[in-house]
């Protein structure tokens, strides 16, 4: 017999879930909570095998409920119910100690699976999620570090080059037909972006970048 | 005094000396000066009386006679007068009546070149005086002119400063309007965003949950339903799934919940995946590892700019990929969207407000005190950079908060 506490704030959803879980042989619903704090309290007093928990439950966020339950009643496994199929939600739930993650628009059979797997100490993700996790792993483009120089605008690049060559702001202003103040603004901008603090550092950076020949 | 010496002195002084005899006649006393010979030859030859040779002299002799009769005082003078001789020569003469002992004497002196010179000087002085007067009149006229001019300048200045005041108040009014407009624009953007957020949540949480409940109930019903009702019940379930799908898409179109729960980077990553699915354009995302928590307002603005810029890439650039960069530098948050597509003329594109979202992006950045830079040219791709100051109170998204608490 698997004992279950159900935490879900939406009345209609809770009703449906209750019917679904009670209809499953071998499942016994021992408590119901409509918010996060109540869910934690119920788990602490009832020590169920599984907590079926809505992620977006009020008063205490589902992630916090999961963490507290895992810390205080490690024998209780948490199965998250969520509207969100996006990776960050799933990752956060698993990192906080959830054993299963079931999408709310999946079928009822999914939830039954997840509860049984959790009872056996196995992770369970809705099939849609499992597929997604794999494909996102494959799809993930070769993430590379941000090259800050690339974030510079055309004007900033031009002013940088002239400044590195040793031209003063008024000289640059004359050359680009803009005011000295504008030149100073561009200069301040790229110095900030590139974390440069002196002319020497600027020249060194320009040489490293191949903008200036040493 | 030796008589010959006296004679020499008289000659040197070109004096004509007449002595008055008892009968009142004036007899010329030698030597006779040349000028007298030239002027009155008859009188000179005869050593005759001075009477009757010159009307001016005759006139003077009346005064002189009165003096001689009274026999007292230092003598009387005639003042200079002019005589013309038979050859046209001019002689300036001056007479003096005096007494010397018993003798009554009349001296007539030719004033000569010294007088001419003095007269010239006097004449000159007179002219100068006249000039001076003219000059003074001219100066007065000038001063008057100047006064009038100054008056006009004063009037004009007053007019101008009045106009200037009017202009200043006009400028102030316009600035106030501009500020009000700015505040309104910002408010509008916020209201729109809040509305979107509300609708997205309502659709996702409330309507979505209701549909979920409905679906669960149907599934349970289906288990115990008679076989005859099952096919139509399955159809209803299909429609329900479709409906839930639509509701979720709509909610995400309005506002991705990831933005509120996890912040900018996860929301952008999610958006890039979705964008790839919809357009086939792959987005390379480069961002600095360190993430500074920023206000929801700023997060939303940057997200919307990236979203809008990518929409433009899909519409116009005709490229298979684009790059998005996200960074923080000091107290600034920056984002850049770059493609190597067709490019365009930024000036023209910005001028055509309605057609592109460019103007909206620029306005959004500027409303937050930030900068918007558009680098593009036909044939050389597009780089759009937005930088905004990370100012005001920071609010950390709920999910990020719990993330920080976790070990």
List the helices and strands and how they pair.
The complex is a heterodimer of chains A (214) and B (407).
Chain A: E1 2-7, H1 11-23, E2 27-33, H2 36-46, E3 50-54, H3 62-72, E4 77-82, H4 87-95, E5 100-103, H5 108-119, E6 124-125, H6 127-139, H7 154-164, H8 169-176, H9 180-193, H10 199-209
Parallel strand pairs in A: 1-2, 1-3, 3-4, 4-5, 5-6
Helix pairs in contact in A: 2-3, 7-9, 7-10, 8-9
Chain B: H1 3-12, E1 15-20, E2 26-29, H2 34-39, H3 41-46, H4 55-70, E3 76-84, E4 90-100, E5 103-110, H5 112-224, H6 230-254, H7 257-262, H8 264-279, E6 282-287, H9 296-317, E7 321-329, E8 332-339, H10 346-351, H11 358-367, E9 371-376, E10 382-389, H12 398-405
Parallel strand pairs in B: 6-7
Antiparallel strand pairs in B: 1-2, 1-5, 3-4, 4-5, 7-8, 8-10, 9-10
Helix pairs in contact in B: 5-6, 8-9, 9-11
Strand order of the largest sheet of chain B: 2-1-5-4-3
Report the span from N to C terminus of chain A.
Answer: 77 Å
Shape of chain B: rod-shaped
Q: What would you call the quaternary organization?
A: heterodimer
Supply Rg of chain A: 29 Å
Q: Regarding CATH, which class of one domain in chain B?
A: Alpha Beta
Report Rg of chain B.
61 Å
CATH third-level topology of one domain in chain B: Heat Shock Protein 90
Element order of chain A: H for helix, E for strand: EHEHEHEHEHEHHHHH
Q: Which architecture of one domain in chain B per CATH?
A: 2-Layer Sandwich
Strand content of chain B: 15-25%
Low-confidence stretches of chain A: none
Global mean pLDDT of chain B:
83
Structural class of chain A: alpha/beta
């Amino acid at each position: 017999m698997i004992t279950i506490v159900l935490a879900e704030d939406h009345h209609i959803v809770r009703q449906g879930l209750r019917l679904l879980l009670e209809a499953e042989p071998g499942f016994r619903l021992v408590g119901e909570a409509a918010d996060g704090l109540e869910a934690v309290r119920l788990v602490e007093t009832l020590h169920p095998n599984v907590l079926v928990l809505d992620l977006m439950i009020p008063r205490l966020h589902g992630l916090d409920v999961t963490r507290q339950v895992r810390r205080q009643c490690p024998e209780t496994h948490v199965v998250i119910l969520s509207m969100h199929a996006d990776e960050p939600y799933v990752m956060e739930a698993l990192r906080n100690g959830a054993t299963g993650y079931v999408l709310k628009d999946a079928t009822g059979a999914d939830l039954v699976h997840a509860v049984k797997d959790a009872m056996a100490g196995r992770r369970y993700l809705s099939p849609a999620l499992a597929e997604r996790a794999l494909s996102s792993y494959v799809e993930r483009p070769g993430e590379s570090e941000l090259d800050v120089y690339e974030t510079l605008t055309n004007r900033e690049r031009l002013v940088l080059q002239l400044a590195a060559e040793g031209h003063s702001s008024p000289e640059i202003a004359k050359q680009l037909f803009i005011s000295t103040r504008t030149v100073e603004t561009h200069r301040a901008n790229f110095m900030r972006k590139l974390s440069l603090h002196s002319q020497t550092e600027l020249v060194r950076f320009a040489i490293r970048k191949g903008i200036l020949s040493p | 005094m030796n008589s010959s010496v006296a004679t020499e002195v008289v000659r040197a002084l070109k004096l004509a000396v007449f002595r008055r005899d008892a009968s009142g006649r004036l007899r010329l006393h030698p030597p006779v000066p040349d000028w007298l010979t030239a002027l009155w030859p008859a009188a000179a030859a005869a050593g005759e009386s001075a009477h009757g040779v010159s009307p001016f002299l005759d006139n003077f002799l009346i005064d002189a006679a009165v003096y001689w009769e009274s026999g007292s005082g230092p003598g009387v003078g005639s003042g200079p007068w002019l005589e013309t001789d038979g050859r046209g020569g001019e002689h300036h003469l001056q007479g003096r009546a005096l007494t010397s002992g018993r003798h009554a004497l009349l001296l007539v002196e030719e004033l000569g070149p010294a007088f001419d010179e003095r007269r010239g000087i006097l004449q000159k002085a007179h002219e100068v005086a006249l000039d001076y007067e003219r000059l003074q009149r001219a100066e007065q006229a000038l001063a008057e002119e100047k006064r009038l001019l100054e008056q006009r300048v004063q009037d004009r200045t007053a007019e101008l400063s009045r106009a200037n005041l009017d202009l200043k108040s006009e400028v102030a009014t316009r600035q106030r309007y501009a500020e009000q407009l700015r505040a309104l624009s910002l408010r509008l953007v916020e209201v729109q965003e809040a509305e979107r957020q509300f609708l997205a949540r309502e659709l996702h949480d409330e309507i979505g949950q209701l549909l979920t409940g409905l679906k669960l109930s149907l599934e349970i019903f289906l288990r115990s339903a008679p076989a005859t009702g099952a096919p139509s019940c399955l159809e209803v379930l299909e429609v329900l799934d479709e409906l839930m799908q639509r509701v979720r898409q709509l909610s995400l179109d309005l506002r991705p919940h990831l933005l509120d729960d996890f912040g900018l980077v996860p929301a952008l990553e999610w958006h890039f995946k979705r964008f790839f699915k919809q357009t086939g354009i792959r987005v390379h995302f480069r961002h600095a590892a360190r993430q500074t928590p920023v206000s929801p307002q700023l997060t939303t603005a940057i997200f919307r700019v990236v979203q809008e810029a990518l929409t433009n890439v899909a519409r116009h650039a005709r490229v298979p990929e684009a790059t998005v960069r996200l960074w923080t530098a000091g107290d600034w948050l920056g984002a850049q969207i770059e493609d190597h597509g067709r490019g365009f003329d930024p000036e023209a594109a910005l001028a055509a407000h309605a057609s592109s979202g460019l103007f909206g992006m620029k306005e959004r950045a500027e409303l937050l005190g930030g900068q918007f830079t558009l680098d593009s040219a036909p044939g050389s791709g597009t780089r759009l950079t937005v930088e905004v100051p990370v100012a005001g109170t920071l609010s950390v998204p709920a999910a990020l908060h719990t993330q920080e608490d976790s070990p």
